[in-house]
Specification:
Layout (H helix, E strand, L loop, with lengths): L1 H5 L2 H6 L3 E3 L5 H4 L6 H6 L1 H17 L12 H14 L4 E5 L6 H10 L17 E5 L4 H9 L6 E6 L6 H18 L1 H6 L1 E5 L5 H9 L3 E3 L13 H9 L4 H14 L9 H14 L5 E6 L5 H15 L1 E3 L5 E4 L2 E4 L10 H6 L4 E8 L16 H4 L6 H18 L4 E6 L4 H22 L10 H10 L6 H8 L11
Helix pairs in contact: 5-19, 6-12, 7-12, 7-15, 13-19, 14-19, 15-19, 20-21
C-alpha cells in the first residue's frame, strides 16, 4: 500500500509540507516583524551557503543529507530485525540524546498512542518500544521491572561507543541477561548500533558476536534519526521506514530549488536568524498543535541547541551565539505558557506546527441546549475546535505584535514526518552558516564528560578529578 502511495505523484503533491510566515512580517506585526528588504538582503549569503551545503553533501562532510537515498540501510535493518521479530515482545533502546530523541519522536508521531499497551495481535506482532535515555536508577529499575526479559531485545546505541551512560546501562543489562539465560542467549538479545570501525562497542561486536548496525562515520548523533539509529527502533515498532525516507527524499529535491525565495529551509533559517540578530528574539518556541508531534519538539530542541549554541565562530572569535529552543504543545500550553508569550518580553518567535487532517473525527453532540456555554459546541467537531484555537492564538499574537510562523503538515504520516525532519536538519545547518558557526561539533559538553570520567576513575582523566578536588569549596553562608 505505502509503495503505491508514495509512488503516486498526485498523492505526493498533496502531502507537501509548507511554510507560512505572513505573521512574521512587518505588514502584520509592525515594527516587531521583518521587512521584505531584510529578507532580500540575505539572498547573496544564502547563495554562498547553498554552494557550501551542496559541496558538503557531495563530499560527504554533511552525511545526513544523503541518508534518504541510501536504500541499503533498510535491507540491513530487515536482516537484523527478522530473527528478533520471531520472539520479541518488547524492544528497548539504551541511548541518550541523539541516540534516543529521534526514535522517541517517530514512535510518538507514527504509532498509536496506546501502542505499547496493546496485545501483540493488535500491534500486528510488533514489539512495544521503550526508550531508556537516563540513568536515574529508580526510573531505570522500574522500567525493567515490568519486562519479560525472555521476550525483550535491547538496542544499545552510541555513535562513539564510549557514552558513559549508555555503557553503564549495557553493563547492567548484559550481566542480568547472562545470569538468567546464559551468555549465548543474552548476546542474541542485544543489538549494537555504533561506528562501523572504531570504539569499544564495535570491539565488543567483534569479540562477542552481537548483531549490529552502523552509524555512518560522517553522521553526528543529533542528525542520525534517518540512519539505523532511528530507523531500527521505528521498523521494530511497525513504522513504514521506506515511506519515511521517501518523504525525506521529496523534501531533499524541493530544497534544491534554485530560487532561494522558494526554498523553505533557507526561508526558515533566514527568519530564525534575522529575528535573533535584528529583533533580539532569542527564544525559539516550537509549538505543534498535535500531541503526537510533541516529541518532534524535543528532538528539534537538541538539534538546534547543540548545533548553534557556540562560543566561537568559524574564525575563532568569541561570539556566544545561539537561540534557546522551547517546546510547547497546543492547546495544552495555551493554558500554561501563552500568557507569557502574549504579554511578556518581546524575546520570542513562535513556530506553529499545524496538521491539516487528522486520522479521526470526533463529533460533539448537541446536549444541554439551555446552557449557552455548552450548546454552541453541539454539532461541531473536536477537530474544528483544535484548528480554530490555533488560528485564534496566531491571530491574537499578531494583534499583540508577537510574530509567529507556521509549518503545515497535510497529515501526520511517515511521508510528512520524513519531510519535516529533513527540512529542520537543513534549516539548522543553513542557520549555522548565517550565524557563522560550526553546526557539527559540540565542544561545550566535553568538559562535563571529562570531569565525569575523572570522578569515575577512568584511566587518563586523573587531571580532571584533580581540578575538581582543587576547586573552591562551598561556603556555609550560601547554604540555607
Amino acid at each position: 500500500m505505502s509503495k503505491k502511495r508514495f509512488g503516486d505523484a498526485n498523492w505526493v503533491a498533496s502531502q507537501a509540507v509548507t511554510l507560512d510566515f505572513n505573521f512574521a512580517m512587518s505588514e502584520f506585526v509592525g515594527e516587531h516583524g521583518l521587512t521584505e528588504k531584510e529578507m532580500e538582503e540575505l539572498l547573496p549569503r544564502l547563495a554562498a551557503i547553498d554552494q557550501d551545503l551542496n559541496e558538503g553533501r557531495q563530499s560527504g562532510r554533511l552525511g545526513f543529507m544523503t541518508l534518504p537515498f541510501e536504500e541499503h540501510m533498510v535491507n540491513d535493518i530487515r536482516r537484523v530485525a527478522k530473527p528478533i521479530l520471531e520472539w520479541c515482545w518488547d524492544f528497548v533502546v539504551l541511548g541518550i540524546g541523539g541516540s534516543a530523541l529521534g526514535a522517541r519522536a517517530l514512535h510518538q508521531a507514527l504509532c498509536h498512542p496506546q501502542h505499547n499497551f496493546f496485545t501483540m495481535a493488535r500491534r500486528q506482532h510488533r514489539p512495544a518500544l521503550w526508550l531508556l535515555d537516563n540513568i536515574d536508577p529508580d526510573y531505570f529499575y522500574g522500567m525493567l521491572d515490568g519486562l519479560d526479559l525472555r521476550r525483550t531485545a535491547f538496542n544499545v546505541i552510541s555513535k562513539s561507543g564510549g557514552t558513559a551512560e549508555t555503557l553503564a546501562q549495557f553493563l547492567f543489562i548484559y550481566q542480568l541477561l547472562s545470569g538468567r539465560m546464559g551468555q549465548e542467549r543474552a548476546a542474541e538479545r542485544i543489538v549494537i548500533t555504533t561506528d562501523p570501525e572504531k570504539g569499544p562497542l564495535r570491539r565488543l561486536v567483534s569479540q562477542e558476536g552481537f548483531p549490529s548496525l552502523n552509524v555512518p562515520t560522517n553522521v553526528g548523533g543529533r542528525f542520525s534519526v534517518l540512519s539505523p539509529v532511528g530507523l531500527l527502533p521505528a521498523f521494530m515498532a511497525g513504522i513504514d521506514v521506506e515511506e519515511l525516507l521517501a518523504g525525506a527524499r521529496f523534501m531533499a529535491v524541493r530544497l534544491r530549488e534554485e530560487d532561494h525565495r522558494r526554498n523553505p529551509a533557507y526561508r526558515l533559517a533566514s527568519l530564525f536568524y534575522l529575528f535573533a540578530t535584528r529583533r533580539r528574539r532569542n527564544i525559539l518556541v516550537i509549538m505543534p498543535y498535535a500531541s503526537l508531534l510533541g516529541g518532534m519538539g524535543d528532538w528539534f530542541s537538541q538539534l538546534w541547541a547543540e548545533s548553534l549554541g557556540k562560543k566561537f565562530d568559524l574564525e575563532g572569535r568569541v561570539v556566544n551565539v545561539g537561540t534557546t529552543p522551547v517546546k510547547a504543545v497546543g492547546v495544552t500550553d495555551q493554558h500554561s505558557q501563552l500568557q507569557l508569550y502574549m504579554e511578556g518580553p518581546h524575546d520570542k518567535l513562535i513556530t506553529f506546527l499545524e496538521v491539516g487532517k487528522f486520522q479521526h473525527r470526533v463529533d460533539l453532540p448537541a446536549l444541554y441546549p439551555h446552557l449557552e456555554e455548552l450548546s454552541y459546541l453541539g454539532g461541531r467537531t473536536m477537530n474544528e475546535l483544535l484548528q480554530v484555537e490555533r488560528q485564534a492564538t496566531a491571530f491574537n499574537l499578531m494583534k499583540a505584535g508577537r510574530p509567529s510562523l507556521t509549518l503545515r503538515l497535510p497529515e501526520i504520516n511517515p511521508f510528512t514526518v520524513g519531510q519535516l525532519i529533513y527540512l529542520l536538519e537543513v534549516t539548522t545547518v543553513a542557520a549555522a552558516g548565517l550565524f557563522g558557526v560550526n553546526p557539527l561539533d559540540q565542544p561545550g559538553v566535553e568538559g562535563g564528560k571529562q570531569t565525569t570520567y575523572g570522578l569515575m576513575g577512568r584511566p587518563g582523566f586523573e587531571r580532571h578529578r584533580q581540578e575538581l578536588d582543587q576547586a573552591p569549596k562551598p561556603l556555609e553562608k550560601y547554604l540555607v
